[in-house]
Amino acid sequence: MISEAKRLLVIGNASKAARRSAIKALLWSCSFQPGDKLMLLGVLRKVNNRSGYRSKMDLSSIFGANQKTVQDELAVKKKEYINDGEINSLSQKCKISGIEFHIEVQQAGDSPREVAVRAARDFGATWVILDKHMKKDKVYLMEQLPCRISVVKHNNAIKDLQQMRVTVDPDVKRISRDAACGSHGNEEFQNPVCSVCRNRRPKIGWKRNFTFEELQAATEGFSAKNFIAQSTFGFLYRGELNGLKIVVKQMKSTSFQQEEFTSSFSALSGARHENLAVLLGICSEGNHRILVYEYICNRSLEFHLSEYLLGRSLIRPLNWDQRMKIAFGAAKGLKYLHENDIVHGKFRPSNILLTHDHEARVGNFGLSTVEHGASFFSSGATFGKLVYYAPEYAELGKASTKTDCFAFGVMLLQLITGLGTADPILRGKNLVRWARPLLKDRNYPGLLDQRIGDSYDIHQLFWIIRVAEKCLKKNPHSRISMEKHECRWSPHWAT
């Protein structure tokens, strides 16, 4: 059952009668209350002109359809909606239940997305649902409308793109303070404050575009003292906007055009989950291409594994419960991405960020799928990093949910063994090749990091090794999927 909506606007392509089946099924599944309002808007993009050819609804063009033809076609399409048996039944149901139901068919003109935005504003929509044909306009609609926005997927399920945004004062200081303190009534993540350092997460629904000037100020001119690291895709700096700690990533590539950059990363900024490092917004002024993330306080899993392996006394090795908590959190984050059609592309310990409570936040998701030229052959992969690439990715250079799954299995091996991907113990082999004989012979004690001692749970050990084996199948079709198997992980692992 879809959640209630006070003013629901459903926008579809009136030129495609076959697409109405999904919209009708959707409308019947919605829950309404007396006084709610529902509008079904058909956007007519093309009409038959006098020559019998389909013409775009561009009235400014000498090749477009004339106004008489347009009006006739609009009337025909609206009649089709009204006379549709299921829609008519829905209309009667709404009338009996005290729900206002309207049907509108409008011409697309030069810009169907402008028609959609104008209709949503005129209607005062609190929720807009787009059919599959309108999906390509989602980024523009998300920028223009503060209401909840969803899209109908291929299986007729609903995918939320944006929750209702709260309008705030445009003053930068006030916005930043509200984001940090959570004054706008937005929903909070679970465990929003680190129990050790008291770092607070932004509210779930908070995001916006940034100016280069304010990011420059937040990082003190991208100063050396705020420099964190250099990654495949850019340079990372820590910053602060009136109490809100952020991480600013300057992208190396400036080949993105402004609209392309906005389109590519606005969709990623809508991803919100307990176990994701949230992309708060972007800056695309001039030649600047910058991503702004929430700050995660306790570095990456790679840091904790490598510091431990180097034997440095500044950090304690992760105990068994902490490792299981990290594995479970990372699995949930990756599952969310895959359920929302986002391929991570570079899942590895360096992109699993941790709090002092060992809550895992998966970061840098989706970058390899939108960055120009990012592939196995051009990503600067070193020997140690090659182990994360599935066989088919090494061959074809194409990331998928299955290649993510393979990388997840490698990460599990590291948590189990405590080994780096190029540890001297491996004697020149990569971690996966070294582990396969032990997995085949079920020599699980030979895999386990002996420095854990006897603090591990034997059932958890056997289960996590089984999961790792299924992730590391050479045939991608034989691997598990995060969507199906993450939910089978026992929640009591996350202590």
Automatic annotation (TrEMBL):
What is the membrane topology here? Answer: Single-pass membrane protein
InterPro entries referenced in this protein's UniProt entry, alphabetically: Kinase-like_dom_sf, PERK1-13-like, Prot_kinase_dom, Ser-Thr/Tyr_kinase_cat_dom
| Lineage of the organism | Eukaryota, Viridiplantae, Streptophyta, Embryophyta, Tracheophyta
* Reaction(s) this enzyme catalyzes, per UniProt: L-threonyl-[protein] + ATP = O-phospho-L-threonyl-[protein] + ADP + H(+); L-seryl-[protein] + ATP = O-phospho-L-seryl-[protein] + ADP + H(+)
Which GO terms of the cellular component aspect does the record hold? Answer: plasma membrane
Gene name? LOC116187420
**Name of this protein:** non-specific serine/threonine protein kinase
Q: What species was this sequence derived from?
A: Punica granatum (Pomegranate)
Chief site of localization = membrane
The UniProt GO MF terms for this protein read: ATP binding; protein serine/threonine kinase activity
